[in-house]
């Protein structure tokens, strides 16, 4: 069936990618404007909450990289938040308080753990993958609980925030906020490049149809493992920032509930969109703050919200997002 | 040393039997319905709270246990009909989200109904005390009763799965879901029965453990992950795998905590061995899981994915 | 060009012998058709040849090299490509992207994380060429999920072409395609004759007899006859086992 009618020949699609970048730009501008607004309202507390949201946005975006673009539902990603956070605690206890060295240490620990556990988890698929990542996440959790040198279960307080190249940039809440924002932007740019690269196309292709990709010559394992490690490393950056925000680290950073919350964020904002992770972090954490003000039984409301959302959108949250035309699409 | 070993081995078996009760339902639900249920640990907790309530009302552990069972059926059926049933055709991601929400709801509801302070369930009179085991060693009667009760349930489950029509359908369902629907079986009914059976077993585990543990809202959490490890090790959908996996995980967990440092002491100096042992012990079951999965990605008795 | 040699290949599912000691010699540049009634094990044979399914016994040689122990991706790297009977494409990708990702597999590393792949002209140009060869050039920018069945069959072909195979396994490329479309498809395949070696599994006897140099007949996992189309057509054993049923099957 040949047709020469021009209507049958859609032009090369204008990359919706531009749309994603645009949405991200709007978000970043809004984030940049938030602190002056908060100080005008005389409520600098918002800056600390904002830092927390931005840090989680980094983690959610990193998770979306494998969950949205690779359909790898990792239920152990909180472990990497923990590695980042403990990198701050461990290095600062040895007097190394430079942010970038701490980030590097968090990345090294995360890469090692993700490489080993990912290699085992990725030999399986579906339900197995979810449960195994969950179990390995729990393993990391128990490791830090029994690490008595850093407070074990009780956690470890940081006497001061990290330095940045010898300056005390993070000493002020504003400095920490804008550093976090800068890292969020950097991680977004990186993720965006990755999903649009050769590697990203293969990785997304494996999500679309694994057998097809094998039949044109790709071994999925290597690509999935690489993406898994990248995602883990980026998540640990969020952990470094969260430790600075709270000036405290504890195994609670790595509980399986935290992993679940990261997944919730990605899904709330829209899987496979990158900006969705950012939006999801904002929505989920603000909802948490707001419900928390209403009642200390807020998880009851949040849980009900989750269940209703899954049950009453015909094909689940994933379907709802597809119908809104923002999810699943890779650009 | 030998005494300690026997004691810890028995404790391990007792934990293993409980883990089996929890993991059995979980593995069937995974294997037959392909549903991941994060709320399974909640059922274990609910079982404990139910027996605590009924035992307090009636003043008897036995009445509590007897009343807990129909209540567990109701709870299981309710969750299946209201939530789980709608998740069969959904993606794993949807299942994760909905059952994660269910965990939040259930934990808060339990806190609202029963408060935050732990409850306790009195040991039944006839099972209190201990019996001599070997030499000066004595072992609590109740724990022996738990082991026996668990083994009895496991045996019952074995008979049901291997020698009844329902069991035949379950086994068929775990290997090939299409086949079961092709047999003209009412899938909805079968799934409801399987889920409720699993729920009752988890509740039973919670009820049995109530007299020897404090009943609190956190109790479902740790056990859920251990049950996942059991299911993964045993192979999804395999009751036999769940049984052996549960015993393996529980014995390694219990013995490792005690004997790990002993073994390390022959390699390291005592202080380092103690430190290392404390760090490694809680990770042992996960390392075990990693090793088994590395050799057999589908678990000990799983069909290959 | 490259020959394909299949030696004593077997596969059992439980007690069922799905592939039973199958041997085949396909010469360089030959189009070799494999026909057989439903359930004869044709698709299983393709799965074994392509490496999707592990064989219980036997060897597969491409150009004399034993590839029996290689995975499907590695076999593709040795020049052994396949198409699928049931459409197997990347539904969220455009037709062009479906093909470009196949081109990418054989041209340069895929572990590049920064450059925008959509702007790699070499990939797109090669992909467009393959699409045009398969008769799908005008639909390059349509999402695969929006293509019709006939277009999916052509996309399957384009993807296989893009891997630049030495040996191409075609699993019922005409499944569900009829009339003029089928004729155009057969013409297209004819044009590839001599460019690579082909194993063609096909139900459409017209296509088989129009294309094939030689035909093998597979019944219950065994090859009962191999020969020129004319010889196969007049082989009484084949007629009894297979061709006699054809009339009913078409209905």
From TrEMBL, chain B:
Keyword Cell membrane: yes
Keyword Cytoplasm belongs to the record: no
Keyword line: Amino-acid transport, Cell membrane, Membrane, Transmembrane, Transmembrane helix, Transport
Alphabetized CDD domains for the sequence: TM_PBP1_LivH_like
InterPro entries, A to Z: ABC_transp_permease, BCAA_transport_permease
Segments passing through the bilayer: 12-31, 38-57, 63-84, 96-121, 141-161, 190-213, 219-236, 243-264, 276-295
One GO BP annotation of this record: amino acid transport
Any Pfam family matching the protein: BPD_transp_2
GO CC annotation terms, alphabetical: plasma membrane
A GO molecular function held by the record: transmembrane transporter activity
Family, similarity comment: Belongs to the binding-protein-dependent transport system permease family. LivHM subfamily.
Protein's name in the database: ABC transporter permease protein
Organism: Pseudooceanicola batsensis (strain ATCC BAA-863 / DSM 15984 / KCTC 12145 / HTCC2597) (Oceanicola batsensis)
Higher taxonomy: Bacteria, Pseudomonadati, Pseudomonadota, Alphaproteobacteria, Rhodobacterales
From TrEMBL, chain C:
InterPro entries registered for this protein in UniProt: AAA+_ATPase, ABC_AA/LPS_Transport, ABC_transporter-like_ATP-bd, BCA_ABC_TP_C, P-loop_NTPase
Keyword Transport: yes
Single GO cellular component term: plasma membrane
Organism: Pseudooceanicola batsensis (strain ATCC BAA-863 / DSM 15984 / KCTC 12145 / HTCC2597)
Domain ABC transporter: 4-245
Lineage summary: Bacteria, Pseudomonadati, Pseudomonadota, Alphaproteobacteria, Rhodobacterales
Protein name as annotated: ABC transporter ATP-binding protein
SMART domains linked to this entry: AAA
Record keyword Transport present: yes
